[in-house]
Amino acid sequence: MTAHDLVLEGHGIRLTPAHPDDAAEAWALTDAAIWTGMTTPWPDSAQAYADRVAQQRETPGMFAFTVRDAETGGIRGSTTFYDYTPSQGRVEVGTTWYGRAFQGGRTNPATKMLLLGQAFDAWGLNRVALRCDARNARSARAIERLGATPEGRLRRHRIASDGSVGDTLYFSILREEWPAVCAGLEERLG
What we know:
- It is a single chain.
- The protein has five helices and eight strands, in the order ββααβββαβαββα.
- By secondary structure, it is of the alpha+beta class.
- The protein has helices at 23-27, 46-57, 107-122, 137-146, 178-189, and strands at residues 8-10, 13-17, 63-69, 75-85, 90-98, 127-133, 149-159, 165-174.
- Residues 14-149 form the N-acetyltransferase domain.
- GO terms for molecular function: acyltransferase activity, transferring groups other than amino-acyl groups.
- Pfam families: Acetyltransf_3 (PF13302).
């Protein structure tokens, strides 16, 4: 799978296919600290960010999105579906980041509502997994707050871009859990 044409919109957020043309605006929202715990190094220039997006667009099983304000079109961050395996009824959501001004508000729950709705309602999948570096307590709390169930810790599972080796925390949402998770997200976004 290469570049996709999937656009998702709701709750004031629009997810558009990530494109290297987004790089200058998106990269300006990033910094090395936002990237802490990711397995890929922080793209230290707009060109490096554009190169990263180009690589995501060519990765099989990945749908990379630019997260935008639905009204203004302004960029808030990025997220992806990856390891999309329709024959097994599963996908992962991750490589997500938001500019600091958009952390802790409506952006993440709205984005996840759109992604989870696509996964369960449109694609009919059985499972959506999410994971994060165990050292990233903020991400772990955000994933649990979505309503995802903690599944466990994979020890020494990831090498961060700084070369440090860390554990990965895994979470999931199953199809039968989606109605309750959806209701919780609706309440947060209401």
